[in-house]
Amino acid sequence: MNERSVLIICGGPSPERGISLNSARSALDHLRGGRVGVERIVYVDEELGLFGVEPGQLYSNTPLDFDFKRHDTLEPLSYQAFAEACASVDVVFPVIHGAFGEDGQLASRLEALGCCFVGSTPANAEHAYDKALCRDALEAASLPTIPTVVITSFEPAAPRAEDRAAFENAERFIVKPARGGSSIGVRALRRSGRSVADTIADIARSLDKDSGQWLVQPFMTGTEFSVPLVEATGGPVALAPIEIERKSTTLTDEVFSFREKYMPSDHVRLHCPPRLTPEGIADMRRLADDVFKALGLRDFARIDCWRTDEGRLVISDVNPTPGIEQNSIVFIAAAEAGLSHRDLLECVANAALRRSEAGTLTQASPPEHAGRPVRVLFGGASSERQVSVLSGVNAWLKLRSGEKTQPTPYFLDTQHRVTKLSYAASLRHSVEEIEDVIASDDSARERAASVRRDVRTRLGLGSPRIDLECGSPMPLARFLDDRAPVFLGLHGGIGEDGTIQEMLEERGIDHNGPSAAACRLCIDKLATAKAVAQAGLPGVVGRTAVEVTADRLAQTTPTELWQGLLDDIGASPMVIKPASDGCSTGVAILSEPSELWAYAQAIREGTRALTGEAFSRHADEQVIAMPVGAERFMVEAFLATDSLGFDDSGTILWGQTVDTGWIEVTAGVIQVDGTLECMGPSITVANQGVLTAEEKFMGGTGVNFTPPPTPPQGKTTPEAIDRARETLARLAGALGIAGYARLDAFMHRETGEISLIEVNALPALTPSTVLFQQAVSRGERLLPHEFIQLICP
Fold first, then answer.
1. What is the per-residue DSSP string for 71-125?
2. Confidence band, pLDDT 50/70/90 cuts, at residue 257
3. Looking at residue 69, what is its pLDDT?
4. Is the peptide bond before 264 cis (omega within 30 degrees of 0)?
5. Which runs of consecutive H residues, i.e. helices, occur in 406-536?
6. pLDDT for res 262
7. Mean pLDDT along residues 276-282
8. What does the alpha-carbon distance between residue 473 and residue 708 come to, in Å, rounded to a whole number?
């Protein structure tokens, strides 16, 4: 039984609303079943309207998913009802990032209601959130900050005398809004030989005059760090700092961007503990403590800073309500201190409860692991390995929060070795970061242990209840000597082409997902298309598809290659993709020979990524991750789908520019009591061209309508949805699917006809996956942890 009850507040008016939803989902997931139970969830929309949210509704991916259906499915709350909800719980936990949530406005309302809430006082929150006010407060406390020019009137401004040298010596500048976060609106600019005064004047004239104050700062050189803190009875306790190593150096990558913060890749590597001496780590933690105290912050926060090439520490940003999405910096640092997600959230709740009469939580005794052992395997060597990390970790954490299983995370590296991971290693953002942790030496482990001892002592905690050390890498064959069930979080390569499934089946080891034979078929898009055509199912519409080898791409002239494909396909545009890759890898829409030639050249030269600039049907900034070593490609006819957009009120603008009757959908199938069931499909909305990896996997980014909206909001008929579900379930059965899978297809909004795109035998199980939205929309609703338990072997 829960000792304390909590109300989560999420959403808000800022561009960081999507991150707020990620944080809220994470808080709900990790407080579930603990000593603090989530009793109520309140969503705040862009106009500061209040809505009650059920747990299942929280798993819509983006604010738009909330907004377009809020009037039908969310419960509007009066201010009185909101006040009563806040009074009914022990502690209110706001996770609104940006305006309203971090600038003191929400804190002012909660303070007026007299409720116990997580976060700083209104005045102190505003001084921490507003970068100009924050700089003034820190300088008044004699704490080091980055030299700054504050632009208010959008007229030329000049550096202060003490900052003039730093500006004169700078060749690059950072421009950022005074009120904002998540790197939104932040950009790097070169000086281009002009004087500092002229450069700042140019910047001032280019800014949005309706966006308030802006800060201009010399571009910092050195190393960037982030330090999360939690408040204890004796004051703030800085956790282990996170070192942010940039792996790319182009101008557009000079800012730790929104994509790099939240999308797994090797563009950025995080090191925790940082690669500093113990004295350097101690200095950084002391500075973070001093910032927390100087600003009068409460409960928890995150301090961002730089260590210059000369070894000097300077503060760059303060986050009074840091993001707590599942693999956030806050949780990585906490795990290095021996704190699970739940442990950290309960520490934060404790800090707030100490200010009330409700009393605090005592550390729970270690849980009894009575469930059956399950090994969760993720990583691999395919182009989808980064998403595999997100999927595997999410599945592991969801299984860990229940009582039926005792899951252990395992990592498959590019050499097909398997390593049992520590809790902290599992939370890393990329395959490469996990490999760094596995290979860490004794000095790194001792640095981590030293910080851990200090943090736990100051927080008054006993022995850690999570695994602190990784195992030693072992051959895959030795991993398979154990007969415990395996939950596969792998995508692509040997994890999805039937190889591992066959090895497990030969040894009699239970695993999730379809059989080896079904995986071998579904990984090959050309073979799948042939099998679908041979099945001859009613309601399935075929499209012409041909195979093109890498040799043909490399050796045929552009004109001859294009004409040959036109002869086979019948018309342009056409879609090219690797025959056995996923996660949008290498998917491009081709409209003319030059675009095909640009794609072929990238294959010949082993280019890792292309931008949309080379393709007329892609957005210029879209990144197309290219396959490495692919030998076979599939080219098929492009099927134009209805245009989907939104007006300022969130109303769907359906078919205004393209109206074909076809929409792109994705649907999960699950086996319940031996019968394959297709869950309600979702409309997937691409900003332009094809869905990007961000739109598929980065929480708060991609828009999915689950279920597809019917009149008056949309144009999909209920009868078409029912027919499509029946067809997709039959199609999955014809392909030998068992357990679960995800089918991507085009669907006719009125007839329910289906044209298959691909089958994902082991679909992504990231926190933002549309499968969770579909599971909670079933007649017998399944929350994400229940869905994971259902498909667990």
1. HHHSEE--HHHHHHHHHTSSEEEE---STTTTSSHHHHHHHHHT--BSS--HHHH
2. very low
3. 64
4. no
5. 423-426, 431-438, 442-459, 476-479, 499-506, 516-523, 525-535
6. 45
7. 96
8. 46
